Amino acid sequence: MDDRIALVREYVKAALRGAGAHGFDHTGRVVHLSEVIGTQEGADMTILLPAALFHDIARPLEEETGTPHEEAGARMAESYLRSIHYPEDCIPGIVHAIRAHRYSSGIAPGTLEARVLSDADNLDAMGAVGIARTFMQAGEQGRGIADATAHFYEKLLNLKDRMYTESAREIAEGRHALLVAFLDALDSEIGVLER
Question: What is the DSSP string of the chain?
Fold first, then answer.
């Protein structure tokens, strides 16, 4: 099984060549968080790891065409996994986890593996990494500090209460506290500059 996971990793890495808020560096962190949480929660790694690797593979396609990356990514994963003869009984769980991982997809994660992937992806939007990614994405889109901080209030501060697993809830507490402290400091500094 490890050889197939290595194949998946190389395939996804080639597809996500560029860095950025949703580059392969993000995927690597989500895979790591999935491994940590999945191990603690007893998830099936033959489902969870490929799902974590594939979860954002279609982000470039979404940016080009507007096609939801979770749907396109699920189709890409299914096709690729069949091409490498990945165990057929694992593929539906992988596809579901990819489809359900997105904060705004409206699809409830119906398996432990889908819940772990959702938690891992949301955790990477929190804490110090989440702060860096938010400002990176704002810069990528030509937006400024006000737009980036609006994202904190619209999404990031809500993530702590959207964790499905106990393991993720524990990690989210510290990352949420850092988000709040950062916003307090930023508001204070911006307020001083605007006086």
Answer: -HHHHHHHHHHHHHHT-S-STTSHHHHHHHHHHHHHHHHHHT--HHHHHHHHHHTTTTHHHHHHH---HHHHHHHHHHHHHHHTT--GGGHHHHHHHHHH-STTS-----SHHHHHHHHHHHHTTSHHHHHHHHHHHHHHTT--HHHHHHHHHHTGGGGGGG--SHHHHHHHHHHHHHHHHHHHHHHHHHHHHH-
Residue 195: pLDDT above 60? no
Fold of 2-194: Hypothetical protein af1432 (1.10.3210)
Domains in the chain: boundaries: 2-194
How far apart are alpha carbons 159 and 126 in whole angstroms?
8
pLDDT band at 23 (very low <50, low <70, confident <90, very high): confident
Q: Scanning the structure block, which residue is given the tokens 């508001």?
A: 187
Model-level pTM? 0.92
User: ∠159-100-115 over CA atoms, to 5°?
Assistant: 60
Give the pLDDT confidence of 150-188 residue by residue, as tens digits: 999 999 999 999 999 999 999 999 999 999 999 999 988
